[in-house]
Amino acid sequence: MNTTNSTRPRQPYTFSFTVGDRSDDGHGETRTVFLRLMCLGTTDGTREAEIVAAYNAAKDKAPKLEPSTYCKDYDDNEVPEDVRVLWEAYGQNPKGELYVDDYATLCAAFLNIGDPALEAGVVGDPTPSLDNIFGYCGYGLFRQ
């Protein structure tokens, strides 16, 4: 869904997703993070469709940057060097250990690769979830 050429004004919406061990079969730690996105959709379903389209477009443009491909194993809290270099081309610099907010920033940046008009960014308001889009991700960000 290419929504960047629409004449309807974009509206800010906040969505959440869970980072960490959502299945609670390992370290059991999670944190909910919130992203603010500028969406054209007027219902939760149409807004989510925009986000799914952006996520899929980003996967097509930059598959190695997909957040679910790193920080997914226990104690795996660093972006691989080849991925870090790719992130630099998109204005991100994930060096060293990542924390939840760092990871959330990369998730927002990933959506922006797919649809820059979303202007995704990390915020702190609780609202509808994006767990079904990001899937089980960020497991390696937590330690016991």
Secondary-structure element order, as H and E?
EEHHHEH
Low-confidence stretches: none
Shape: globular
Q: How many DSSP H or I helices?
A: 4
**Biggest sheet features:** 3 strands, antiparallel
* Portion of residues within helices: 25-40%
Mean pLDDT, rounded to whole units?
Answer: 86
In short:
By secondary structure, the protein is an alpha+beta fold. It has four helices and three strands.
Features of this protein?
4 helices, alpha+beta, 3-stranded antiparallel sheet, 144 residues
Q: What do these coordinates show?
A:
This protein is α+β, with helices and mostly antiparallel strands. It contains 4 helices and 3 strands. Helix content is 31%, strand content 16%. Strands 1-2-3 form a 3-stranded antiparallel β-sheet. The protein starts with 10 loop residues before the first strand and ends in a 10-residue tail after the last helix.
